[in-house]
Amino acid sequence: MDTPMAQVRPSRAAALGAKTGTLGVALPFLALLVLGIAFPLFGGGYWGVIATRACVYWVLVSGLNLVVGFAGQIAIGWVALLTLGAYTTSVLVAGTVTPELSPYLALAIAAVVGAIFGLIVGLPALRLRTFYFAITTLGFATIVTQVALAWQSVTGGGVGVAGPIFPKPFDSQWGFYYFCFGLAAICTWMTANIAASRFGRALTAIRDAEVAAEACGIAKPALLGAVFLFSGAVAAIAGGLFASLQSYITPDAFTLDLSVLFFIAILIGGRSSILGPLLGTILLTVLPEFAAPLVAWSTFLYAVLLLVIVLAMPGGIAELLDYKNRRPLESGRAIVPRPELLERLLDAPAAAEAGALTLEQVALAFGGVHAIDGLDLEIRSGQIHGLIGPNGSGKTTTLNVISGYYAQQSGAVRLNGAALPVLERHRRAHMRIARTFQTPRIVGSASVLQNVMIGGTIDGQGTFVESLLSLPRHRRDEILLHDTAMLALAAVGLERLAPVRADRLQHSELRFTEIARALMLRPAFLLLDEPAAGLSAEEISRLGALVVAIARAGTGVLLVEHHADLIFDICHHVTVLNLGKNLAAGTPAEIRSHREVVNAYLGG
Amino acid sequence: MSLTRRQALKSAGAVVVASGVAKPAIAAKDPIPVGYLPALTGPSSSTGVGINRGIQLAVKEINDAGGIDGRQLELITRDTQSDPTKAVNGAAELTRGQKVSVVFGPVNSGESLAVVPLLARTNTPQVHPCWVDSLTDPQKYPMCFRNAPTNQQIGSAANRYVMEVLKRKKVAVISDTTGYGTASVNAYVPMLKAKGADVVYQGNVDAANPDLKPELLRMQSAGAEAIMPWSVNAGFLSRIINTRGQMGWDVPIVGQTTLGSGQTKDLLEKPEYWAKVYPNNFRPVCYAPGGKLTDRTKAFLDRLKSAKIDMGDTLLWWIALGYDSPRLIAEAMKSVGTEPDAIVGYLNKLKGFPGVYGDISFAADKHDGYPDDEIVMVEANSLKDGAFNLAPGYSA
Amino acid sequence: MVASIVSTGLAIGCIYALIGITYNVMFSASRVFSFTAGTLGMLGGVLGSLFIARLGLPVAVGFLLALAGGVILGIVTEIVAVRPVLKSLDQHLYVLSTLALALMVQQFTAIEWGTEARPFPRLFDIARGGFDQQFWLPMLACAGVIVGLELLYRHTLIGRAFLAIAEDTYAARALGLPERRLRMVSYALAGAIGALAGFAGGEMLLAFFGNGPMLTFYGFVPVALGGMGNNRGAVVAGLLLGLFQQTANFLVGGIFASVAVFTVFIIVLLARPEGLAGAALQRRV
Fold first, then answer.
1. What are the angstrom distances between the C-alpha of B11 and each of A34, A320, B90, C23?
2. Which residue, of A443, B173, B197, B289, has the fewest CB within 10 Å?
3. Are residues B186 and B274 in the same domain?
4. Is the CB of residue C193 less than 8 Å from the CB of residue C238?
5. Do B178 and A252 touch (CB under 8 A)?
6. Residue C79: CATH number of its domain
């Protein structure tokens, strides 16, 4: 989208609320920061080694967290990248294959190598199912270790290579600790920035509501690619630090147990969280040190912890710490939309922009079943077009064809005359075509506000790197997205529930949330898939008023519904489908009295 | 919930403070802490388990006899789990947390490679029994000593036996894909070639591969006259021996000590297959020609029997090495006290420490203590009460 | 040479195929894959060695007890790691729960049984040599399982009920089939098949805790290549995998053989994610 976002002035109350909220979120991190800086004062040399190790592991886990925790990819074999980074750094510093390089340069080169291999290991995730991808990452980890063993001229084979020693002041024990701690702190900051950016939200959308993410225009390959690059790079850096900590690396140091540790730390910590996995990493690194007999059973205990978390507390430590979402919600809440806000939100297009979304003789068959059989349909800007018919008549299929999930076998779907490309569902958002779904598809573990902000993902201008470093354009994006989303929520009547976790909402509230998310695109055309299902009579009438206001602001609406009353109340045109064919089309009055329609669908 | 978090942080802090507080100067009758880093669990634990039996017996005997000048020896064990990461953690705890006087171990090379630099940084004397050649360096690591043979020494003895006693020139060298295996093949093949051997086969095979027939067939068609396996994996070694037997191929197998272990024997398909298998071993714990053990060894075996220590599933020399090591350290401490520099000074001048498994000697420029001439080849199927006969034709 | 590669390749391919069938039977009943399939194979070998070699029980008794162990692990998998997560919204929790369970069993075996490979007893007192029992036992087991499953699915009521559940759980439930119980029985059956694989292959693979991860990976390749839930595809793919692996072992040696297997696996998978014989993805919206 290249039109700049509407000039929504950030409200001072919202900014203040954001500030205190941010402080609450930052407090635990600040506490850890202070603890970490002061650590040498009270921790002995032994705990210094453990603390350094925890920092090194966290550097890797922070990146893996984006892959596993946020994007939901089950990458179990990530130790492969630790191995790569460790060997690359060590070999470059040792100068056996290339001229001797400075450890910092070696680390940087390792990061590049790690990024490339992170991409290679991760990209199959785009093609493979979850379990398959998990197995391939395990295979990858084995392969890297085997290659390290076999490539003796470079890696030293079984005898290994010496790890790099960083120059002053990082060559002493505490100096090196501060080096690792500093990198860990930077990684925490960067990944926290991503988590609070449109990229972080988009990742959770891909994980929990992939279909909806596509409808919002989120391109999975590009986003996952960026995440794998970043994750691979920091894992490799962690590898270089690991090699230095060990003084000497051999292939047998990179065990599957280590991979499992990283993975479990994230899951114990909880997904979509930075603090949770951070605490999880510290916990799993420190735990075996507290009791020597525990050492032999450590992997067993990690597995037990994982099982307990999965069965009893899938949200992990993060869920435990989320006391805000344990406050009871007010009962008997009502959704009271404020349609008057829609003018501001939707930025009423000029009359010249009025257009039409048309279907011409669209046909699609699944095997022998003609789901849609030569359908003609026209949705005009500012008008509400209802689509009704018995179950199985092809209503949702039609909607899916328009939004690009199915490819029609003949006929065309046109936007203002130009044919829409088939099966390009993630480009529909760029054409300002938005939709909702038959079953609400939302990210349960995210707040209502975050879910709505997902709708505006493609409006952000800042790149992934800018978000990583919290540069000005990223912050501007966030403020604008935040304020627009609050406006959308106010328009649909849910602004009081903005900070609440979405999976605590009632079904009807989820439907309105989806509408708010769709409105973030300021759509020229809005496709609603049975939005009234499960709503009370009062809510249906409010929904109707809202849809009318949306249309009045210039959006063309396609309303697929079973509630005939709603259809006849608000629609300008109605099309009736039966067995994929256009049974009748016309104004509500015409349809209501149409004999065939009455026989087939409406009844006496 | 924040309360729980704060509580957790506080108690973690308390533990950290407690272990960070410097220990008071060791009073005259306090026990002497000695650090010990065995691999008791994990994939490479068979050596560690064997050595451990000897160490526990020796420490008990030393303490029962009054310890060192009335001070008991306190063995502080940190199981490395065959993992270099845990070995480093353990070494850090032993030196910086427990403040041990000396460290014995680790027993696996991969772990030692990581631990030796760490112990050097903390000025802790170290004695270890690992074989990888690069693990001692009197210049770089002046406080690190090895009371076991090096890979070079072991390989020399085996190569000498194959070429000079058995008079075979065409040799097949095979190992598994572990660090030890690949390092050994890398080291021994050039040594063989330098002696004029024709290495007709050289390979690293995955130890889990159930079928080694193609490998042995390849050796056979290349004209190999002897097979030299280098692995501590009993499963792998037994497969080589079994396949040779199935093929009815009459060539000697000369190699790693584990060829003679109880574990390997258990995995053989037929006891006859164990003939013509010649592993390394150490003269003091073998039967001399005439079938007698040295008095020292006989006394040691009696002590093992009365302490009911099992030898059937391990190797006697591991137990013997474990037994000798605390006694070596105790001797040093009895002579010069527990200061690190004194101990190192003593070791640098040590000549012929009478160990059960070998006489150990060090010098300031030589920290590999095992004498060449005590490394011998033995006949695997002569195993009796943990000891072997010398291999036929074998002379010093 | 060739004879050796072929006999070992086919034998080990049958073991991989059986683990693949274990995966498939679990998948048919629940639409999820379980990491415990490889662990079952490992247990078959370990339990066989424990009961027959160490405890001295007769072969038949040891065999039944080993299968019983597999059945128990299969049922435990269903109750603890699969049933609780099937109803959750998050579809991928099963990967984590079955991984956790597999790791627990794996580590427990490593600590209690030991990390060294122990001998597996010779089952029939026939002389060695030629086409030895360590080769034809896995093949016999594989053939037996294929025939048995075929008979089960086509000629018994419970087998057809399994097929119904696999085909369409909602319809099956609507018909009144006790879905949960059938799923548990399916997992018990899968457990027995997995343990059988390990038991039949015990002499070749030895009773070794490290067989678990190895079988988890190599047992999954037939599933991935043969198509989810497709047992015949799994057998063909398993045999091909066994032959390819042994040939690669021979041609390029142990390390590069595993690299070769993995590379071919991932290339085929990327080219055809649903497997060489599998069905395409279904409706998502």
1. 17, 19, 22, 46
2. B289
3. yes
4. no
5. yes
6. 1.10.3470
Mean pLDDT across A165-191: 92
Q: Which residues, including other chains, have CB under 8 Å from residue C235's CB and lie 6 or more apart?
A: C14, C17, C20, C21, C142, C146, C222, C226
- Indicate yes or no: CB of A130 within 8 angstroms of CB of C258: no
- Mark yes or no for CB contact A286/B12 under 8 Å: yes
In this complex, do B266 and C119 lie within 8 Å of one another by their Cβ atoms? yes
The pLDDT of residue A338 is above 90: no
CB-closest option in C92, C104, C213 to A72:
C92
A313-340 residues labelled b (16+ CB within 10 A) or e (exposed): ebbbbbbbbbeeeeeeeeeeeebebebe
**pLDDT at residue A110, as a whole number:** 96
Q: How many CB atoms lie within 10 A of CB C56?
A: 9
User: Using a CB-CB distance cutoff of 8 angstroms, which residues of chain B are in contact with residue A157?
Assistant: 179, 182-183, 186
Query: According to the model, what pLDDT value does residue C285 have?
Result: 52
Helix axis angle for A45-65 and B2-20, nearest 10°, is 140
Q: pLDDT (tens digit, 9 = 90+) per residue, B253-280?
A: 999 998 998 888 888 888 999 999 999 9
**Cα–Cα distance, B45 to B263 (Å, whole number):** 13
Cβ A159–B178 below 8 Å, yes or no? no
The CATH number of the domain holding residue B212 is 3.40.50.2300
In a domain, B303, yes or no: no
Residue whose tokens read 């899951």: A267
Residue type for position A393: S
Which one of B134, B182, B202, B231 would you mutate to disrupt binding with A, by most A Cβ within 10 Å of its Cβ? Answer: B182
Residues 6+ apart with CB under 8 A from C199: C44, C45, C47, C48, C63, C66, C67, C141
Using the Cβ of C114 and the Cβ atoms of chain A, whether some distance falls under 8 Å is answered with no
Neighbours of chain C (3+ CB pairs under 8 A): A, B
Location of structure tokens 């071993």? B281
**DSSP annotation of A600:** I
Q: How far apart are CA C271 and CA B350, in angstroms?
A: 67
* Superfamily of the domain at A339-602: P-loop containing nucleotide triphosphate hydrolases (3.40.50.300)
Domain holding B269, by residue range, is: 152-289+375-390
Per the CB < 8 Å rule, is B179 touching A50? no
Q: Which residues of chain B does A245 touch, with a Cβ-Cβ cutoff of 8 Å?
A: 88
How many Å lie between the alpha carbon of C208 and the closest alpha carbon of chain B?
Answer: 9
Chain B residues lying within 8 Å of C211, measured CB to CB? 208
Q: How many other C-beta atoms can be found within 10 angstroms of the C-beta atom of residue C191?
A: 30
